[in-house]
Amino acid sequence: MGDPGDPPDGAPEGGSGSDDEYRSVVFDESFVRAARIQELSASERLGGGWAHPVRRRLGLGTLASLPRQALTLLLLIVMAFSAAVYFGVSAPQRDQGAGSGTQLTSEFTALAPAGGTVAAVDAASPFASLGAAAGFADGAAGLGIPTKASTAHFSQAEVTQALLTVQSYLEVSELSAQTLTDGATLPVRTLLAPSEQGQFDASVSSPTDDQHHALTGWVVRFDPARVSLASDTVKVAGTVRIAELNSSMLEITSDDTLVYALRPAVAAGTAATGQVSLYTVRRDVRMDLDRTDIANGQLRLIDAVVQAGPTACGAAQSVYLQPLSAGSTAASPGSVDPANHGQPAWQQCGVLAATPTAG
């Protein structure tokens, strides 16, 4: 007997006798997903509101046949690429001149008193001993800021604005009593480009003698518990040089000799006493400014070379400069041992030359 599942008359001629004849019209899952029309479900047909038993699918073409994970990954890639293009186009642009990633490097040389003893000066006229030929003037008048200048790629207006910023920095960093003895640091910080403010903040919070974070590389300052100003006047003999580092960066260098009249600190409300002495600082400072810096009234300190005395050669100078008071003595610098790696190579000491006298 035949199989109960076979047709009574047997399999049709030329047929397989099974479902094989329908295999050519059976569609796999990818084909179904790619179909442009979709039959309504039973609940949708019962609910009514459909004019036709089928609805059109949104045409995604080849994407409709991709696995869900692949579609998700593709979407993330597109979003990331779009974000990169957007931020690349919309981010503010800054001149990429040389020095844009630099930081301040400072070097300090202590100057011991000539003859070993610090001389006192007349408190009523502390600067009388300065020779006129040395070119000293009072405060900002001695900085030597050019009045008119231009360069190949910077106009006179741009250079003038840059020099105003430089003058502001020099005044607050080496002439202002707020900085010298009152401990102010914000006026200097606001004049620094954002790229250097972090380094400056670290120098304020954790000053150290590592050539990059000595606070005395950024400013002239004295310990108010030890030193007070005997005169509001600072004598200055300085020069300012202007050059182009490249077509988008100005390089301005100031070289100032500053003479301060100091006396030992006294308690608040107490009359000033103690002998007055002179303290001399030479600051050779290089500053870079691109056009964004000029427009913002900011600059970048690149190098600061400081010589100061009379002071003791071994005194720590990263937080405050350490002047010796009148009558104090200090040993002359000893010999330097190049084999002594325990002493930083950049730390130097010399002998302060005699102060130029009035002719």
Q: How does this structure look, described?
A:
By secondary structure, this protein is of the alpha+beta class. The protein folds into two domains: about 30-90, no CATH class; about 105-330 and about 345-350, no CATH class. About 25% of the residues lie in helices and about 20% in strands. It has nine helices and ten strands. The protein has helices at about 30-35, 40-45, 70-90, 155-175, 175-180, 185-190, 195-205, 215-220, 290-295, and strands at about 35-40, 55, 105-110, 135-140, 225-230, 235-245, 250-265, 275-290, 300-310, 350. The strands form two sheets. Strands 3, 4, 5, 6, 7, 8, 9 and 10 form an eight-stranded mixed β-sheet that branches. The N and C termini lie far apart (about 145 Å). Mean pLDDT is about 80; it is low at about 90-100.
Helix-strand blueprint:
Elements: H1 29-33, E1 37-39, H2 42-47, E2 54-56, H3 68-90, E3 105-112, E4 137-138, H4 156-174, H5 177-180, H6 186-189, H7 194-205, H8 215-218, E5 227-229, E6 235-246, E7 249-264, E8 277-290, H9 291-296, E9 300-309, E10 348-351
Parallel strand pairs: 3-9, 3-10
Antiparallel strand pairs: 1-2, 4-6, 5-7, 6-7, 7-8, 8-9
